[in-house]
Specification:
With 434 residues, this protein is of the alpha+beta class. It has three domains: 6-179, no CATH class; 188-286, no CATH class; 319-429, Aminopeptidase, CATH 3.40.630. Helix content is 37%, strand content 23%. The chain has 14 helices and 16 strands. The protein has helices spanning 6-16, 23-32, 60-66, 187-191, 203-212, 214-221, 225-233, 238-253, 261-273, 281-284, 289-327, 348-358, 411-420, 422-429; strands at residues 37-40, 44-47, 53-55, 68-69, 76-81, 86-99, 102-115, 118-132, 138-142, 161-163, 178-179, 334-336, 341-344, 373-380, 383-391, 397-401. A six-stranded mixed beta sheet has the order 10-9-8-7-6-11, with helices on both faces. The protein has a five-stranded mixed beta sheet with strand order 3-2-1-5-4. A hairpin with a 3-residue loop joins strand 1 and strand 2. Helix 5 (203-212) packs across helix 6 (214-221) and helix 9 (261-273) crosses helix 11. The longest helix has 39 residues, at 289-327. It is elongated and about 95 Å long. It starts with 5 loop residues before the first helix and ends in a 5-residue tail after the last helix.
């Protein structure tokens, strides 16, 4: 698109004046973006670098395990078992530089094409430029894409033009595996704490954060890289960070380095949930962050379980009237062999407790509202052992399950006891009014 704003016009003008990629920059890309590789066949090895084919002297297995040196070009080859006759690959390669007051990321696609008998052919084409003004505003320049849904289908014959935000905006956020080590950085970024290390953060995210957020500047200068990485990846503003800022300052004052920003933030959120003092180093600077985090996660889990149980109880009371209409005639049925007691679950709360004790879905799957089945509980000394579902159509046992839906050592005994007394259920169903 044509540049519209003053900023876009200035970037477009400066982009045209950028130097072409230099010979040292090309050599670094060609020497680092691809491993020298040899394809191992049954008797020969094809060197993808020079195209030479040669026999492996020490056997195929040694070649695969130890690699080989090509007698043609002298390069040490990483070996791969393959019968292919040609090979193509591409990698992104980024040069970090400056132009006037702008920080610039120049993203190139390095392509390698290989064919048996011919030396590898390399191409380096520039695809995208990210320009960052001193205030953090960003302008993207790129070539057009042949198919916009694909990340790297660039039309190398097209011009480098200003690109607006669109559904494919992320295609301009290139995170290259290879970055030219000799970088140029604006004085503002140096002042704001950038020293050449991206700390695993996309350059676009890090530069924007350091140019727009004083909080992020503080984090990088305090070497709080775990928190820096967390907030940069989330494009967090100062307002987003403010919730945790007092706790972060306590960490900085106590020389407490947060290695895992995500775990630490989750932990602070848990402290807030339990009304702990997040301005106290005792809480926000734990000696073992993971252990402290996991302890509070377990506490929160218990609270959530208790709340969920209360909700189930409330819902159970509301559903009990409907349950009684469906299963009321079976209430009170119980029998025993002297060791195992079996009873019909008499109300919806009993379904809740049965499911909680045996950790299965007898309540959450609404078995209490199924018109053609009846649920019984087999117990020993008053404790649930297995839950039994009976068909009210043919009075067969549909299922009989213990804790975690497993069977128990009493499984056969329980089924035999139920079958011996199934007539009690049949008789209730045949009662007048059934």
């Amino acid at each position: 698109m044509k540049p519209k704003t003053k900023l876009q016009k200035r970037v477009a003008e400066l982009s045209r004046k950028l130097n072409k990629i230099s010979e040292p920059q090309k050599r670094w890309a060609l020497g680092n973006c691809f491993d020298p590789t040899g394809y191992v066949r049954s008797k020969t090895i094809w060197c993808l670098e020079c195209g030479n084919t040669f026999e492996h002297e020490n056997g195929r297995l040694n070649a695969q395990l130890l690699g080989v040196v090509c007698p043609g070009c002298g390069k040490e080859l990483k070996t791969v078992t393959s019968r292919r006759l040609k090979y193509e690959a591409s990698e992104y390669y980024t040069i970090v530089t400056t132009s006037q007051e702008f920080q610039v990321l120049r993203h190139f696609v390095v392509s390698k094409k290989c064919r048996v008998g011919s030396p590898a052919v390399f191409e380096i084409n520039e695809a995208v430029q990210n320009w960052f003004a001193p205030d953090g505003k960003r302008v993207n320049m790129s070539r057009t894409a042949i198919l916009s849904i694909y990340y790297d289908s660039w039309n190398w014959r097209s011009d480098m033009e200003v690109r607006g935000k669109s559904a494919v905006y992320l295609k301009y956020n290139v995170f290259a595996n290879y970055v030219y080590p000799r970088i140029k950085v604006t004085d503002i970024l140096k002042r704001n704490g950038f020293n050449g290390d991206f700390h695993g953060i996309m350059p676009q995210q890090l530069f924007t954060s350091l140019l727009q957020s004083s909080r992020m500047e503080t984090l990088i200068k305090a070497k709080q890289y775990g928190l820096l990485k967390l907030f940069a990846k989330e494009h967090a503003s100062d307002a987003d960070i403010e919730r945790y800022w007092q706790s972060i300052k306590i960490c900085i004052r106590n020389n407490y380095i947060v290695e895992d920003g995500s775990i630490w933030r989750d932990y602070v959120n848990l402290l807030l949930f339990f009304n702990k003092d997040i301005n106290n180093a005792k809480y926000v600077c734990p000696a073992d962050l993971k252990q402290a985090h996991d302890r509070y996660v377990e506490k929160k889990h218990k609270v959530d379980e208790k709340r969920a149980l209360e909700e189930k109880k409330k819902k159970a009371l509301e559903e009990n009237e409907q349950f009684l209409k469906l299963k009321g005639k079976y209430i009170g049925i119980a029998f025993s062999d002297g060791n195992i007691d079996v009873k019909v679950l008499d109300n919806v709360l009993e379904y809740v407790f049965e499911g909680e004790k045996l950790n299965h879905c007898v309540y959450v799957s609404d078995y209490h509202l199924k018109p053609n089945s009846l649920i019984l509980s087999a117990r020993i000394a008053g404790k649930p052992v297995e839950t039994i579902e009976i068909s009210l159509k043919d009075f067969s046992i549909l299922q009989c399950r213990g804790h975690n839906n497993q069977t128990t050592e009493y499984h056969s005994q329980i089924k035999e006891l139920v079958n011996r007394n199934i007539h009690l259920i049949r008789e209730r169903k045949l009662m007048k009014g059934a």
